[in-house]
Each structure stands twice: as structure tokens, then as C-alpha cells.
Amino acid sequence: MNARDAILANIRSALAGSTPPVLPPFAYRRAGEMTGEELRARFLDRLADYNVHIVRLRNEAEIPAALADRLAANGATRYVAPADLPSAWRPAGVEALEEVDGAPLSHAQLEATPSVVTGCALAVAETGTVVLDAGSHQGRRALTLLPDHHVCVVFEHQLVETIPEALQNLIGAVRDGRPLTFFSGPSATADIEFDRVVGVHGPRRLDVLFVQGD
Amino acid sequence: MTALDFTARARTSLRDSQLRRNIAKATSTIRAKTARVAGELPDWEALRDAGQAIKRQTMAELDRHLVALEASVTAAGGVVHWARDAAEARTIIVGLARQYQAGSVIKIKSMTTDEVELNPALSAAGITPYETDLADMIVQMAKEKPSHLLVPAIHKNRAEIRDLFLRELDPAAIPGGRLDADPSSLAKAARAHLRAKFLSTKVAISGANFAIAETGSVVIVESEGNGRMCLTLPDVLISIMGVEKVLPKWEHLEVFLQLLPRSATGERMNPYTSVWTGNRAAEARAGDGPQVFHLVLLDNGRSKILADEVTRDTLNCIRCSRCLNVCPVYERAGGHAYDSMYQGPIGAIVTPQLRGFEEAGSLPFASTLCGACQEACPVRIPIPNILTHLRAKVVAEKRQGLGALNGENLAMQAAKAMFDHPTLLAMALAAGRIGQAPLVRDGRVTHLPPPLSGWSLSRDFPALPPESFRDWWAKREPRS
Known about the structure:
heterodimer; A: 214 residues; alpha/beta; 6-stranded parallel sheet; 4-stranded mixed sheet; 5 helices; 26% helix; globular; B: 480 residues; 3 domains; 51% helix
């Protein structure tokens, strides 16, 4: 018997005679209850808790100036941009390293560029989590991994309150075979004495440009 | 039972006061954090109920879910392998690494690869395994064993790690040869040391926190970004998971992504979670992740654990390590006393079932049965129940084996005969009242002669009273 059939046969004989338990109805929250203002406050509070630098914007038109400011503050004269990063977001006078289909940037190029700018798929207020799903304005995964500084644009209408709502919204991307990356603050470790420090292999600085309004 | 059992190993670690300080400091820090973030969710108990119910339901039809997972991973372009035991898993993975001509591999923290002793097998095949999780890297460099499920270098403090890094890290990672002992500087040095390896290594090996049968997706939950590096940059990704890690549906993940980080590191959410589905991402857009994905499904004793309805819940573990952090025995004895990559209360039930009682039969006894582990467990594994069940099995096995003539067994047989026969009991008590005289101090017996001296080392009991209850009952005046 091959390994597959042997393992399955062992499992079947181990389970023989026992009745599967009935799954009870779940009582945990699958939907949020917060109003817009509470939701926004909760998200920003959670981000601050993770040492994220937050910039609050009143509308999309304020993005280029805020971006220019954050890039300058991190000493970046160039940034990595997914090919579909909206031109309305791009600051004038800062060089964007374009990721164009068919001509991907090399790991060395990404590594040598100080910052990356992306949008996101959605964000979760209760945990301060931002999710990338390889969709619009995000590019492939390496783009947001190798530069040391990630600036992520999050619109208020992209907020959900809870993790269950986020996963319900992401099933389409998963069925399409798109990878997901959840990030909650910059990279961190608690491996030494369970003492949490920020900044290991992933981007060590994370900025969120939070655009209010629907 | 092995010559060197839990008690003997614990005695060694109890003498190391530095070790005890390191562990006590770390576990008290994490206990406070986990309690706070678990307590802030209004539906925490409901999430635990759901986690337990989903896991139990999954185990009850495990064969069906594994077949579904195999189909969905294959449909997404992945290659599924099955390994009956550790040797088969090693053969598969070493074979794959050879096939892709890997001179070295980068690894994401995985207890399953420790369980199958993959690293020595890779090294023997001329393939250098690089652990990339900070704590795993520390343990690997120090040539030690992990002492905690989640933070395997918890037994070392910052000064010890600094000294290790000065000896072992690429000198280029420590500019000027000066390194401070604060965790932040140590993390920075580790980043510099591993950077080149992330960028140049072609094959990565990972475990899996969850795999979704419905979609063929695999999930890695991590903090440092070493996981993202390994899952994104290499050409080939090989993941190994115990068969119990499968979840039937995508929606089940919403429960565990809440339970795991809050129980493990005491965060509302861990810094990074990656979800990938076969090699579809690489196919869809040039260079997004490994072009080749292999998934190894490991049994290695798990189907045997499944067969016993009492121990079956052992498989529900999501490896959060919260039971270690609340355990008074772990806090004092340390992880190395368990002699396994699975330590603490969960280790005391997992290890003997995976490795057998001959080797690990002392572990079910490494507990006071205080119940703190079950109370903390996010999927409500009844660890104390399983411990006592395993104790009974260990004793039964000893009784059947050559050990039937050992002192403990003979004493228990004698005790059974005595309690079965009132006359024998009365005689024994009478003899005891006379015999105990030299042992009694202030009405208590504090030291027994060998072979009982070990038992009385940490226990006192009251001296036998001058008159037994039976004697008193027989002598009393009838009421009516």
C-alpha cells in the first residue's frame, strides 16, 4: 500500500465506530456594530499601538503632498510603485520605480530602494490590520517586503470592524488564487525575553495615510 | 522508561538559577499580555467554543478533509506528498531539495521539521539548513535544543545572546565589532546577517499553521517577516504539516486568526499573516512567489492518537504555547526538562503519544494537575484529563511488561490485598503504629526510609493516631 492509502486507512480505522459531533451554532460576532466614527477611532488607536506613523487626510487630493512629506521624512528620493498606482496619488519630483508587467524589478533593485507606496484591499479596525490581496494599487508581494519603509494608503470606506468580516470579503481573491498578506504594524519580534521590539526582516517603518470620508 | 526521565532532567535545570530567572521573567511578561488582549474581546469564550467545536468536527472526519485538501492544492498547481513517518518525510524533502540542486535552504520556524529531525538529514545530504526565525537561529547557532514552542530561546537572556552573536554572526552584520545587548540591536544584527541569504537562496522550507481544504490555501502566522521572505523570494517552496492542521472551510480561519495571536504573543494580531494557494500567484504575474510548491502531509503517529477518543483532543492544538506560560511546573523546570520540541503541558501529552512510553513515559507525571492549562487553552483541550488517562496507560504497560516485579507494583499489589481484607488492614495499622515511632516528629511523618524516601522528600503526612476509627467504632457505647 502506498503512503497515502495507508495513512487514510489508518485514519478511517481510528475513526470507525465514533459519531461525528454536531457543530453547534456559533455565538461569536461575525459582523461589527460600530458607527463610522467609532470605527475610525478604533482603527487609528490600534495603529498607534503598533508604532505606525499615521497621517489623516480629508480627501484623495491631499495624498501627493502627504506622500512627498513622508518620503522626505524617511530620506527617500525614490520609491517603488506598482504599475497601477494612480497618477493622482504620485508626488511631483520624486522618482517612482515602476513595476511594469513583463519587466519585473529585480530583488536587488527593490532592496536598493528605500520606500514603497501602495493601496490595500481592506483594513480591520478591531486589530489594526491592513490586508493586501494582490489587487488594485498593490503589486506583487516582493514590492512591499524588501524596501525598508512602506507607505500604505487606506480609505475610510475600506474599513471593516472584525476579522470575520475581513475574511468574508477576501474569499473572492482566495478563489482567484491571489495571495494575501495581513500586516499589523511593522515587523516585530518578541523572541528575546518576550520583550517586543519593532523592526526585523520586513519593513521596519510603516506609515498609513488614512483618507477620511466615503 | 528511560534512565534519564523528566524528574532527573528537571533537577538539573532547577539548579540553574539564571535559567529560572530568565523563564520566570519571560512567562510573567507574556501571561499579563495574553490575559489583557483575550479579556478585551466580548466574545472570547464564544470563540473558544467555536475553535474547539471546529477542531473536533474536523478530526471526526479527518480522512475526508485531507482528500479534499489534496484535490484543492493540486488544482491550484501544488504537488501533494504523504509521509507515514519521520523517515518518509525526510526522504521526500531531502529528495526534493536535491532535485532542485539546493546547496542550502532557508527555513521558517516549524516544529514539524524538528519533529522529523529534518535539519540533520539535510546536513548529511550536503544541504545547509538556515533557520531564519530569530529564536530558532539562536538555538541553531548555540547548538542547543528549543525550550519553548513559540520562543525556543526563552532560556537565554540578552547578554547570553549578544555573546553568541559576537561569536557566530557574519562579521559584516556587526559593524565595528560592537554589539549592544538590547533586543533591538540584536534584532538589527540578525537582519543584516540573514539578508543576503533571503535574497540568494532558491529553496525554502516551512511548516503550516493552517491549510484550508475548501480552497487549497496554506496559512503562515508570524512576526518578523522572515516568513514572508521565505514564502515570496525563493523559486521553490516546500511546506510540511501534520495531518491535523487541516481546516475544512475558509470561514473557519476567522476563528483561529482571532484565537491564535491573542493566546500566543498576547497581540491583537501578529505582525504578518501570509495566505497562498498553490503556485497560482506565480503563474498569474511574473515573479510573485515561488514557481513550484510542494506540500508534505505527515502522519507520524497522529492517526494512533486519533484512535483513542480520550486522547483525540490532543490533535486540536494550534501550538499557541499559552499552556506553557501558565504552567507552574514549566515555569520552574524549564523547557529542556521535557526533552522534546513540544514542552509544557501540551508537550506532556503530545510527546509520549508520538514517541511512546518507553522513551517519554515520565512526561504525563510532570504535572500537578492544577488545571491552569485547560483554563488557558484557546481550544479548550482537556489536558489534565488526558494526562491522567495517559498515566493509567503508562502504569498498565509497565504492569504487563518485564517491569511487573518492580517495587512500586509490588507495593500497590500489597496495598490492594490489604484494603480488600479488613483483618489484614487492622494488622497492618497495628504494626504501623508501632513501626512509625522513630519517624514521627511533632505528630507528623516527614522522612521515610528507602525505597519510600523519594516519595517523602516533598511530602509530609500525619502520624497514625493511637486508635484506629474501626477500633473506636467497635468500642463505642450503643446509642439505643
